[in-house]
Amino acid sequence: LAGWSNPEVSGLCDDSSLTCAVTTQYFHSMQAKFDVKAPPGPIGFSINQGARFTDDPNVTLKVVWKQGEQNALIANDGGFGGAATRDLTGPEIPWTLDSGGGERLPKTVYLRFGDSTQTFTDDIILDETPPRLRSVAASKVSGRVRVRTRATDRTSGVASIQVGPKKSAALPAIKYRRTLFVKTHRKRVWVRVIDHAGNHSVWKKTRVR
């Protein structure tokens, strides 16, 4: 490289970084161009590692590309309207889903690598609406407390329930059933439900009768 003022160097990085060291005995300025090593696995991508539901439109795309690709074109629209280009500098790309429209339909993301017309897709159900805990009743039965609830969630469905003597996110979330039994000597219990996307209902307090 002696006598060259701006030589170009090409190569392959062994990790997910475009910052790679170039060692030379000469002190000339250099412009280095490297490809990021493609992650292993089938070509394509998944949203939030294949999750079925999310309560947040800000998601992570895990991408696997063919070696040599430099960027990806990503969109929330199948015609690639409003698409954005992202450099392939690592296997994870942050993305924002379209949170408008009917939430009961899955949100689909579309991706193309480089100049290719081949389209890869994945979808996820975006549920930003908390479940509703419509009614709660508690009564003593054979030394235990029977808790009866009625809860609904129109998008991802009610997944679990928390019951305890006080409001606490640390309470264990158990699979939702309309009727369950708990051991407590308290005269009141607090209840809330959680949907499959992770949204929580409001807490409700009920007297043990």
Could you characterize what this model shows?
By secondary structure, the protein is an all-beta fold. The protein contains no helices and 17 strands. It has strands at residues 8-12, 31-35, 44-47, 53-54, 58-64, 71-75, 84-87, 92-96, 107-113, 120-126, 132-141, 144-152, 158-164, 174-175, 179-182, 188-195, 204-207. The strands form 5 sheets. It has a 5-stranded mixed sheet, with no helix packed on it. A hairpin with an 8-residue loop joins strand 6 and strand 7 (84-87). The radius of gyration is 26 Å and the shape is elongated.
Portion of residues in beta strands equals: over 45%
Side-by-side strand order of the widest sheet: 4-10-9-6-7
Kindly report the average pLDDT value.
87
First and last CA, distance: 87 Å
Uncertain segments are 14-21
SS element count, helices = 0
Helix content: under 10%
Structural class: mainly beta
Q: Given the C-alpha coordinates, what overall shape results?
A: elongated
Rg (CA only):
26 Å
Write down how many β-strands occur, each being a DSSP E stretch of 2 or more residues: 17
Biggest sheet details: 5 strands, mixed
Order of helices and strands: EEEEEEEEEEEEEEEEE
Short description:
This protein has 209 residues and is mainly β. It contains no helices and 17 strands.
Characteristic terms for this protein:
5-stranded mixed β-sheet; 209 residues; 45% strand; mainly beta
Layout of SSEs?
Layout: E1 8-12, E2 31-35, E3 44-47, E4 53-54, E5 58-64, E6 71-75, E7 84-87, E8 92-96, E9 107-113, E10 120-126, E11 132-141, E12 144-152, E13 158-164, E14 174-175, E15 179-182, E16 188-195, E17 204-207
Parallel strand pairs: 1-2, 4-10
Antiparallel strand pairs: 3-5, 5-8, 6-7, 6-9, 9-10, 11-12, 12-15, 13-14, 13-16, 16-17
